[in-house]
Design goal:
Order of helices and strands: HHHH
CATH architecture: Orthogonal Bundle
CATH class: Mainly Alpha
Number of domains: 1
Number of strands: 0
Helix content: 55-70%
Oligomer: single chain
């Protein structure tokens, strides 16, 4: 899935979490972040800390790639 906004990334993370039947609390504990952070991330907050985003993605088995366009 190509992600171009934080809202799309948040949706992806939420769908993965729900697919594994995890609560936001579960994901926060597994990832070592707070519940508020998970909520903000899933709602597409633009200013979330990238290091924590990568940690959550890693714990959910989601790889993050960056590549040049064109």
């Amino acid at each position: 899935m190509r992600v171009t906004t934080m809202a799309e990334l948040g949706f992806l993370i939420r769908e993965e979490r729900l697919g594994k039947k995890l609560t936001q609390t579960d994901l926060a504990e597994i990832s070592g972040v707070g519940i508020t952070f998970i909520s903000q991330l899933e709602h597409g907050k633009e200013t979330v800390e990238m290091g924590r985003v990568v940690r959550v993605l890693t714990m959910r088995g989601i790889d993050l790639y960056a590549e040049r366009r064109g």
